[in-house]
Amino acid sequence: MIEVELIGRPSWPKRARQFLRELFGSHLVAHLERELMQAKLERDKTIAELRAENRELLNRLLSVKAIVPIAGMPAGSALPHKTALGPTRWEQLQAKAIEDNARAEAEDAAKQTAAQEN
Known about the structure:
Number of strands: 0
Helix content: 55-70%
Number of helices: 2
Largest sheet: none
């Protein structure tokens, strides 16, 4: 906000705003600080509840013997490799496309060498 300095006394609206700011300003700041503190306390409480729930769910997960959580696996253990299951449909399509491209490039190269010989 740009304030213009006037020579002499400030205008009555400016004096009224200043009076209201002095009268209610400290109360407003205190009220906003209380609201902010309450919001921080609620946030901290929610975080603590979520962390407790997370620990409880992890404990339930660990209590089931058949499920091994990925994050809790030892560093030396490895997951079964995907290729042991065989190629997926996408991998088959990729291999076919690579073969088709290689065949087309070979045909183009043969055509170019034949054209250069003639």
